[in-house]
Amino acid sequence: MKAHVDATRCQGMGVCAELAPAVFLLDDWGFASTADGGAIPAEHEPAVRDAAARCPEKAILLVE
Ligand code: F3S
């Protein structure tokens, strides 16, 4: 699975980094991006799915 943060939607809510800090990195303004090109290790998939579901802006896109 891969995850991508749509920069046009992200408003820096930070929920993603709280739920999956190994995957989502926040810049100095709180906007998210994904580490390692968005490739998600299997052990982080549940947290990333949770983050995608709970991002208030629906900015996290998942590709299976
Ligand atoms: Fe942005 Fe959503 Fe995370 S708004 S900082 S992708 S929780």
TrEMBL record:
Assigned keywords, A-Z: 3Fe-4S, Electron transport, Iron, Iron-sulfur, Metal-binding, Transport
Cofactors (names): [3Fe-4S] cluster
Domain of life (superkingdom): Bacteria
Keyword match Electron transport: yes
Pfam families: Fer4_15 (PF13459)
Function: Ferredoxins are iron-sulfur proteins that transfer electrons in a wide variety of metabolic reactions.
UniProt-recorded name of the protein: Ferredoxin
Species for this entry: Yinghuangia aomiensis
Lineage: Bacteria, Bacillati, Actinomycetota, Actinomycetes, Kitasatosporales
